[in-house]
Design brief:
The complex is a heterodimer of chains A (about 110) and B (about 120). Chain A contains no helices and nine strands. The model of chain A has no long low-confidence stretch (mean pLDDT about 95). In chain B, strand 4 and strand 5 form a beta hairpin. The chains are: A mainly beta (about 110), B mainly beta (about 120). At the A-B interface, strand 3, strand 7 and strand 8 of A face strand 5 and strand 10 of B.
Chain lengths: ~110, ~120
């Protein structure tokens, strides 16, 4: 069972803003930076956000991340059809001493 | 980002072992972390462990300690994952992923991934 809880699904119409939450604890999000990955089914995950808020080069500016205490969020502004994918948060857990992923959120563009 | 190349699909019997390879661009003096992540059918992502290529420092998730072995061949810049005592629950796509921060296991994130290797455990 994952230590990081995400809503199973999120949706919006093109142009809307969608946010995905990631809830953890002091041993993971509360102590370490959070990263976000995007995965189109059948393909490998791709890095979207690292170090809570940092976008790698090539990631559109409509993706943004934040962290507060033991939770983190990913926001997609100006939703586009190509944003349909699964999104996973991740971080290090100091108690398990391993990298942990969130349960994943499927984003649907209506 | 540089893409990692993985070995092909495998079908294994319960109780046997599987070895998956991952070729890492960047040469033989590579201080990158290479971690292994798996995804069972219809499920989320699970981290198995990681290895710093050139130093061969390893860290394993507790769940896999005792049956997971990560090795690195620095002459070919290739990382290998061997998982033993396979059960049906080990059926998954196994990915290798490169850490963005050099020479670090803790606190890293993954900026380049292999294409995935399907491992099927079937009797």
């Amino acid at each position: 069972q994952s230590l990081l809880t995400q809503p199973p699904s999120a949706s919006g119409t093109p142009g809307q803003r969608v946010t995905i939450s990631c809830s953890g604890s002091n041993s993971n999000i509360g102590s370490n930076t959070v990263h976000w990955y995007r995965q189109v089914p059948g393909t490998a995950p791709q890095l979207l956000i690292h170090s809570n808020t940092q976008r790698p080069s090539g990631v559109p500016g409509r993706f943004s991340g934040s962290r507060s205490d033991t939770s983190a969020s990913l926001a997609i502004t100006g939703l586009q059809s190509e944003d349909e994918a699964d999104y996973f948060c991740a971080t290090w857990d100091d108690i398990l001493d391993c990298y942990v992923f969130g349960t994943g959120t499927k984003v649907t563009v209506l | 980002q540089a893409q990692l190349g993985q070995s092909g699909a495998e079908v294994k019997k319960p109780g046997s072992s599987v070895r998956v390879s991952c070729t890492v661009p960047g040469g033989t003096g590579n201080t990158h972390l290479i971690s292994w992540v798996r995804q069972a059918p219809g499920r989320g992502l699970e981290w198995l462990g990681g290895i710093i290529l050139v130093f061969r420092n390893t860290k394993y998730a507790k769940k896999f300690q005792g049956r997971l072995t990560l090795t690195a061949d620095t002459s070919t810049a290739t990382a290998h994952m061997e998982l033993s005592s396979l059960t049906f629950d080990d059926t998954a796509v196994y990915y290798c992923a490169r850490g963005a921060v050099l020479n670090a296991i803790v606190g890293n994130w993954y900026d380049s991934w292999g294409q995935g290797t399907q491992v099927i455990v079937s009797s």
